[in-house]
Amino acid sequence: MAKFLNTRKAVSEIDDLIRNAGQTLILISPYLKLAKDFRDLLTYRNSKDKVTTIIFREQALKIDELTFLEELRLVKLKSNESLHAKCYVNDEKMIITSLNLYEFSMANNKEMGVLIEKANPHDRELFDEANKEIDYIKETSVPFNYSTKSDTTQQTKTIPPTQKEIKQEIVPPPKTVNYNGKYLSATALSKELGISSKDLTYKIEKLNWIEKKNDEWVLTSLGKSKGATMKKGQYGDYIAYPETVIIDLK
């Protein structure tokens, strides 16, 4: 059954949850300021081609920390202005806690939480039910708009999250495009653009047209709005893109 965590245990279990995560890692925390250990863990995951999704409401990152996250191509930041939940989950474990992914909270606050393990038959129903809510939070959050412009105060002093927010772009729900023209596979599209398939995947993921689920690339609502769709091929289903996206990708 679910295990109780105090502050020290919660910090330790979150560290283990990130360190041992497979392809799935979702970190939900209204306030965001990463300690060095967590930055190192994210860098390590990125080097192993593993996607990390971080959903937050407010954050107090300096310009160099924002640059650090922006350079990790497989770390996806999303914002949600109504977020209050704190939850950290990989394929096997989930931690629901009062603890923000915020350096000051981890070192100074008194926090509590629970650890839920998918492999435990007593936890499985709870794990699946909580995952449904995590999916809902993820789908209703918007991609964070990185800003590399910052005044001197921002670069030299961390502003507490209760006093200032980094500006973010609220993206309206995309409209689906009905397209009847020529479709291209990712391989064909990369040849049209003169880049490698790997670089194309990186570019399309950064545009938030695709995301990885269960080790497979799937279309997001934004990708579908561009006219992309799933098609059946000789070797199984694949994502096909309308040739009109060539202009966007160039």
Task: Report what the structure shows.
With 250 residues, the protein is an alpha/beta fold. It has an eight-stranded mixed β-sheet with strand order 1-10-8-7-2-4-6-11, with helices on both faces. Mean pLDDT is 83; it is low at 148-159 and 163-171. It has two domains: 3-156, Endonuclease, Chain A, CATH 3.30.870.10; 183-249, Multidrug-efflux Transporter Regulator, Chain: A, Domain 2. It is built from ten helices and 16 strands.
Any chance you could write out the topology, listing elements then pairs?
Blueprint: E1 3-6, H1 7-19, E2 25-28, E3 31-33, H2 36-47, E4 52-56, E5 58-59, H3 63-71, E6 75-79, E7 87-90, E8 93-97, E9 101-102, H4 103-108, E10 112-117, H5 124-139, E11 142-143, H6 152-156, E12 183-185, H7 186-193, H8 197-206, E13 210-213, E14 216-219, H9 221-225, E15 229-233, E16 236-242, H10 245-249
Parallel strand pairs: 2-4, 3-5, 3-9, 4-6
Antiparallel strand pairs: 1-10, 2-7, 6-11, 7-8, 8-10, 12-16, 13-14, 15-16
Helix pairs in contact: 7-8
